[in-house]
Amino acid sequence: MKTNNIFINVGLHKCGSTFLQAEIIPKLKNLTPFTFYKSDILLNEFNYISQCADLYYDNKVETIISNYFNNNNNDYFISSEGLSGTGYNIFSTGVFIKTIANRLYNIFSNAKILIVIRNQKEALESLYKDDVKYGYLGDFKSWFELKNSNYSLNYYKYFELIKIYQEIFGKSKVKVILFENLFNYDYLKTNFNEFGISTLGMENVNFKKKYNQTYSPLSLHITKVVNRFFGSKLTYGVGVGRSQRLKVYNLWRYNISKYFDKIQFGKNFFKFDEYETLLKKQFHENNKKLSKLIDVDLDKYGYL
What we know:
- The protein is α/β, with parallel strands linked by helices.
- The chain folds into two domains: 184 residues, P-loop containing nucleotide triphosphate hydrolases (Rossmann fold), CATH 3.40.50.300; 49 residues, no CATH class.
- The chain is globular.
């Protein structure tokens, strides 16, 4: 690689990646944005390095990606939550986290890594609602128990992920941002500047703009009815984007539901507190280790 600066945001999933990709990165004037928000340049190649198992992996794809970024001296800001190992199915376990980190290092050995984390309780609630949008029809209890039984909750044990990136890229090249402060201009500007990310243009970012807002309890339940009777992305095997086969689904999800989200009704439909003790058992010790690793008091931000 040339000596141009490369910054890579590897997620995590449900931790503000769309806000970074759609609102922040494109407005940073000294950086060339490289995201998959309304772009498919090298999409297949990045999907390959984040999804393909070692048994079938052909590292020629790394040369293809490297050559693309070698063609000029631009400073790039790359962002894709898929690089955090979340996968593209609702039961992903993050099994490729270490593999992806090594592949990224093979391509971008001098890159700096940005990781955004979020309180696990809020992240999992948002993830469940996102899976319902996709087509999951079960209740939260069934979803939670399934996630727990196949070790998918390990994905939100941030200590291991951050530690492995520090070991591979070097501690000074890994920056952790809290989702809870992501929409704070002063916090973000200070942290970006400390990490060497030019913030020229950040003054144009709309920190009040929301992307991928979570469903209200009422919309959540209507979604299950719509998906059961008219089909969903999960039903028809649709990944990202819209499919013409899902006219009712598309109409509800992308148009009508936003009006129902404004109706304050059905708050008791969705109860999460009964799982807080179990979540604390899952994540508390891990968060304690993480607090020391990144020198941040996570208790202050409501982490379990």
